[in-house]
Amino acid sequence: MSHENHQLGPQENSPDVQQLKEAFGLFSRASGELIHAYSDLQKQLATLSAQLEMANLALASQSAQRASLAERRARRLDARPAGGVELAADGTVLRQNPAAQDMAGADWTGLDWAQVSAAMTPADVGDAWLLPSGAAPREVIVEQRPLPDGSTIVLLHDISRQQALARQLADQERLVAMGQMAASLAHQLRTPLATAMLYTANLAREPLGREDRKRFAGKALDRLRQLEGLIRDTLGYVRGEAFELHDVAVADVLDEVEHAVLAGARARAVTFACRQDTGVTRVRADARALVSALVSLIENAFAYSSPGSEVSLAVRRGEAGVEFAVSDQGPGVPAEIASRIFEPFFTTRSEGTGLGLAIAARVAQQQGGQLRLDARHAPGACFVLSLPLADD
């Protein structure tokens, strides 16, 4: 019976059995590979899960750090004595500290900073701006500092009090200068006035000859003219006169100057010489103002000249036009004060007002020229007033 069963069943080496074995082998290998791939996927999933967890922890830490940084920034912004405004990357105001709120007198949160800054106007000092704030605008210095995250911190430094103090100091300095000018002017007026009163009193003496009366009257008149000149120069400097420029003959200017200074030269026993280049005939100037400026320069030279010395006025052609050079043989200008001699009210003479050189410098400047000290001249001092030629 077993022999019959053996004959009825499939043979082990038959084609069907071989195919079945091969199919089972392939299935076994595929199953093993799938199991191995699944195991690898599980390992990769575990690795990715761990990495994701670490990334989440890092993001949470960064978020906490950013929140802490933002909180610290806000605290620092609020604690700043200067006004602080935080701007977003697009320029929108995110927040402002109490100091900025006080300066502005308004809440800028949500506004465009360009709109806020457009309401500011330039102040008189440097880079300062006027910030509208209630009854009186604030003077502020605006400083912007970009941050790494794209936002910007705007700092507002209030300089209103400093500027108010500076203006008060300037007002006080002007008052001091006016007081010094008034004292110097009073001293200057007192001397010719006292002399004129003395000469006038002599006119009342009896008996007084005709020649003496004429002499005393002339001297009194000279002193009164001196008083009138001092007052005219002072008012002219304070008010700032307007000049009318014309083509002026240099010879006419020199004639007027010579007539105006000869009496002073005789009184100080100083020789006055006037020299003119033949090639210089006309100048573009205000004749009256030019004569006054030259007379001031010459009288200044007389004040520093010793008896027997010479003061000269030379007219020549220079690089900038016509040059009027007033030279003396006095002690010259010390180097330590050379930079200040054209300042108004600055003088080294007890009887000086400190206006002569300042007025002459202004006359030259407002007529298109300049007044300078020629440091190469020695001995003595030489002041050169240059003006444009009439042809220029």
Can you walk through the features of this model?
- The protein is α+β, with helices and mostly antiparallel strands and 392 residues long.
- It is 52% helix and 18% strand.
- The protein has 9 helices and 13 strands.
- It has a 6-stranded antiparallel β-sheet with strand order 2-1-6-5-4-3.
- Strand 4 (128-131) and strand 5 form a beta hairpin.
- The radius of gyration is 48 Å and the shape is elongated.
- Mean pLDDT is 80; it is low at 1-8.
Task: Please provide a brief summary of the model.
Helices cover 52% and strands 18% of the residues.
Tell me the β content: 15-25%
Oligomer: single chain
* Overall number of strands: 13
Which structural class matches the secondary elements?
A: alpha+beta
The SSE string, one letter per element, is HHEEHHEEEEHHEHEEHEEHEE
The end-to-end span amounts to: 149 Å
Number of DSSP helical runs: 9
User: How would a textbook summarize the main sheet?
Assistant: 6 strands, antiparallel
Q: What is the radius of gyration? A: 48 Å
Mean pLDDT: 80
Give the spatial strand order of the biggest sheet.
2-1-6-5-4-3
| Low-pLDDT residue spans | 1-8
Portion of residues within helices: 40-55%
Envelope shape: elongated
